[in-house]
Design brief:
Elements: E1 2-6, H1 12-21, H2 29-32, E2 36-41, E3 44-54, E4 57-65, H3 74-88, E5 93-98, E6 111-113, H4 120-123, H5 126-131, E7 137-141
Length: 154
């Protein structure tokens, strides 16, 4: 059975290892752990996602699934968990940067935007300033404009 729940301090080492294993940036991750979610099967952390909070805006980051658990729908479940945390925290606009998953996130209501359309506070994050290249796709979800819903794809 898979349990999806808010991350705790005890999850930090496993989150860091999973993020490292999936070649996602570690810079700024510690600051995002307070609004992170994890998926565990027994004692094993198999997926994670985190939010950097900037008032009523957030940066979705570190969405990762362990390589041997891909294809089980965990990417969708962990993203839904992170979006639920965003709703609980009163986030109205969620941004993300991606180099590889720009076709995955539209099912959650994300759409592409230009970098200069991102709120200034979010643009100050380490991911925007130095970690993600200018070529990364920028996406936004206006959760305040409509409910966060998922379009399931076969």
């Amino acid at each position: 059975m898979i349990e999806i729940r808010p991350a705790t301090a005890e999850d930090r080492p496993a989150i860091v290892e999973l993020v490292r294993t999936t070649d996602l940036p570690l810079e700024g991750l510690d600051e995002a752990l307070e609004a992170a979610v994890v998926a565990r099967r027994g004692d094993t952390l198999i997926a994670c996602a985190a939010l950097e909070l900037y008032g009523d805006a957030a940066l979705l980051r570190s969405v990762a699934v362990a390589p041997d658990h891909r294809g089980e729908g965990l990417g969708q479940k962990i993203t839904e968990g992170a979006l639920a945390v965003a709703r609980q925290r009163g986030v109205r606009r969620i941004y993300l940067l991606t180099e590889t998953a720009d076709r995955f996130f539209p099912r959650f209501g994300f759409r592409r935007i230009a970098r200069d359309q991102v709120e200034p506070a979010v643009r100050q994050s380490v991911e925007f300033r130095s970690v993600c290249p200018e070529s990364a796709v920028v996406m936004v979800h206006d959760s305040g404009a409509r409910p966060i819903t998922v379009t399931h794809r076969p």
